[in-house]
Design goal:
Elements (H helix, E strand, L loop, with lengths): L3 E5 L2 E5 L2 E3 L3 E4 L2 E14 L5 E11 L10 E10 L6 E9 L18 E2 L4 E13 L4 E12 L2 E2 L8 E7 L4 E2 L3 E2 L10 E3 L6 E2 L5 E8 L7 E9 L4 E6 L12 E8 L2 E7 L5 E5 L9 E2 L16 E5 L2 E6 L16 E7 L4 E2 L5 E4 L9 E7 L2 E7 L5 H6 L5 E9 L9
Antiparallel strand pairs: 1-2, 3-5, 4-5, 5-32, 6-7, 7-8, 9-10, 10-11, 11-12, 11-13, 13-14, 13-15, 16-18, 17-18, 18-19, 19-20, 21-22, 22-23, 23-24, 25-26, 26-27, 27-28, 27-29, 30-31, 31-32
Amino acid sequence: MSPTLLLIGGLLFSAGPDPLPGPHTTIGGNELEYRIQLDTALQEFDGKSCWFHPRGGIIPATGAENDAPVVLLTMQKWFVDVSDYFSGLSYIQSRDFGETWSEPKTPEALAWRQEDEKTTVGVCDFTPGWHPQTKTLFGMGHTVRYQDGKLMRDPRPRETAYSVYDAGADSWSDWRTIVMPAEAQFFNAGNGCGQWLVDDNGDLLVPVYFKAKGSDTYATTVLRCFFDGTTITYLSHSAPIRHDDPRGVYEPSLTRFQGNYYVTMRNDKRAYVSSAGPDLNFAPKRPWTFDDGEEIGSHNTQAHWVTHSDALFLVYTRKDASNEHIIRNRAPLFMSQVDTKKLQLIRSTEQIVVPERGAMLGNFGVVTVIPNETWITVGEGLYKPEEAMKHGAAGRVWTSRIIWSQPNELRLP
């Protein structure tokens, strides 16, 4: 592989890949091996903000000779001295499997809007993806509101926001929001940081977390929506998954594996998981544990799925003796295979997929680019930048490639 180009202060530099070892896992008598290659897509820190929430979507190859998928990463700036204060959305592109990347583009269609004299509203926690039925790349996240240069105090409404990408014009549509039922429980309801799915019939399955006005507790549900290539329309939602202490279950991510659905959810004290059949009737949630029964130690941070046709994996953060200096233990990123019958992680398969270098790594994404590669994308969250840099952080946007020994036979774009 040729060197990856890095963008630092507007200048391009080159750096070679940073390889990590990978384990080998046996599944049903067949060996599924993978190796990990860690690349830097972009590196930039201006002392006040860093790139955050990088998540990928792809536009499939056309089939022409030497044609490759277009990989697109959406991201935004985090103003590091203010909690949850994010810019409008930007994006970068690669047309050569991450060998090189474009400079960040910041479309007006994805920018902040002035809602009233006091309130600015934007879109954050965005996840792009491909809709094969309409041959459309679009993304979803949720709205966030700011007042006086910081997060708006509750009661703060939240909606699921989306935008559609026009590849020919290299442009995004003005972001819009999904119209939800006029129910009080959906006052604050959004798909933030969540993996969503396209069902076989083209419907969208969108995990959201929600709460009523004045409530302190989130519940999780999965929306079924119709998408015509331009507009997303709510159709129904699954029975909610609830948890009363503390703040409930939120930032859900959804996947499908061997005919069943799985949802992982964040909670302030521990991570939770639930499963459902095709009817999306989810079983009672349970804490994530290893196969020896011990809780995995993940708390107050999201987790996401890596789904291969031969095995299901979870990527997560957890408490570790080496990461007490990281807020909420949000680095490194670990990956383990899931025992889907017991809904547990197989401890012997645990592997670091993005190392800890002083920065938070809890806000990340997963995208399968080709059958032999799944990418984990994450930006270095420079909370207390001077301290983080002492451990090696530098404002990087990482792509950690999971390179499979056997093709992923799940339906891909």
